[in-house]
């Protein structure tokens, strides 16, 4: 991975760094473009080498025959440089201009002149793209998509759109320059159409959209290549979105994997986690959460649950302390015994509230009282989040959209005023309820919405789903890299809540616990999936065993 492999940037941030490199550092724009094009060519050639090994057809040359689709901006310029370097590497390359070649400007126009003088083959689409049908895609082995980069806005217009559709339908492998054309570099939303790449060579820094779905699926494999910009330029302009990989954990959060203990310690060093979870129909949620907190390393774990459930759960997890609430034989949570709950929470270093809870009359004010009384860090999950969403709704501080000013209201003070820190672990539908949005709106800008909610409510947000997003109130956001679709299974979230609670109890800071919890939950899921014939058969208990 490149030295800058843990930053995630927006198109605007990339422009600022671009400007800084060119204007403040004096780095020639032409050199950036040259480095970009060469990096794309090298990665494309590497990939072609791998394809050649597995291919059954004989090729004329060792090299591939590439069709470079060039847009009229700098992304197109990168494509022209790439074409030149591909021929240097023994491949064939022809350039298809999506716009009239005369419309290219500045560095891209210079590159056009160079490839012309070198005699590279050139195709155009005619004035209105009318020549699109004449393209014989069988002539080529692969496509370089240099149509649109970080300067694109909105849906691809004609003839770009038709060209993108045709490239996808050609069945040829596609290597995208910087981002797949049609992708929103900031959010990961994709237009219809959007290039479906086998490989994306992200230039200088990884764009956020490459790491959020559905964009991540369109990008294929992502390689980040340095192009001459200083590796710390994101810091100069205040980039605060990071990839949660080993580098991100180590450089941003001071955490090393594997996460080992100091020698001279005892179980008191590792804290006591209180799990408030499970009810008659969902006792398993509490059990999974408790077990995960134990495997997560908490020195002690107490599981508090409706007392009627105790006899049947005794002995299932001998390492845990069980504490039954008087439930009048119902097996359900209710608003009674707040004082006892608060007393139990007093000497705990972390409290997890919500897995397998269910809802009951008066639960919203019950939760509020509890949260005001608990001084330790709290993880709120599942129905506890639905209670809080109802509270926000009742106090009418919705709707709230990314970028809008927070509205003043009780709910804003509600958690911000807690003594201890709060981590919430919503899935997209729960997040939508909390924000007064629909699920599609949340998924359309997971990073922006998490960041805003975290700032407003002063809570750490863990927005679950493929590429979980973790947002801290100071504005820092992390995007997780571990995990697999096999983890979309009942109980997986209960396990995550238990791990994060456990790490909090061990004294990690909130953002450290959330980030390491999410990362290791995903890593364990990946290990557990690898040990099975298919990730479809993964169940939540497997994740715990693989921790
Ligand atoms: N970041 C860097 O340091 C470097 C980046 N390089 C590459 O440059 C692009 C960004 O280039 P830019 O010229 O700003 O924009 P684009 O090439 O992405 O496209 C702009 C071009 O396209 C037209 N356009 C915009 N939206 C649409 C649309 N929806 N449909 C059709 N046409 C559209 C617009 O009118 C412009 O003319 C970056 O991604 C890198 O690949 C540098 O080469 C090296 C330094
Ligand atoms: K592109």
TrEMBL record:
InterPro entries, per database record: Carbohydrate_kinase_pred_CS (IPR017953), CARKD (IPR000631), Nnr (IPR030677), Ribokinase-like (IPR029056), YjeF_N_dom (IPR004443), YjeF_N_dom_sf (IPR036652)
BP-aspect Gene Ontology terms: metabolite repair; nicotinamide nucleotide metabolic process
UniProt keyword annotation of Ribonucleoprotein present: no
Binding site for K(+): 75, 145, 181
Cofactor(s) required, per the database record: K(+); Mg(2+)
Swiss-Prot/TrEMBL catalytic activity: (6S)-NADPHX + ADP = AMP + phosphate + NADPH + H(+); (6R)-NADHX = (6S)-NADHX; (6R)-NADPHX = (6S)-NADPHX; (6S)-NADHX + ADP = AMP + phosphate + NADH + H(+)
Ranges of residues in domain YjeF N-terminal: 14-235
Residues where (6S)-NADPHX binds: 74-78, 149-155, 160, 178, 285, 356, 427, 494
Annotated GO MF terms: ADP-dependent NAD(P)H-hydrate dehydratase activity; ATP binding; metal ion binding; NAD(P)HX epimerase activity
Cofactor binding notes: Binds 1 potassium ion per subunit.
UniProt keyword Hydrolase, yes or no: no
Residues engaged in binding AMP: 464-468, 493
PROSITE patterns: YJEF_C_2, YJEF_C_3, YJEF_N
Enzyme Commission code: 4.2.1.136, 5.1.99.6
NCBIfam families: yjeF_cterm, yjeF_nterm
UniProt-recorded name of the protein: Bifunctional NAD(P)H-hydrate repair enzyme
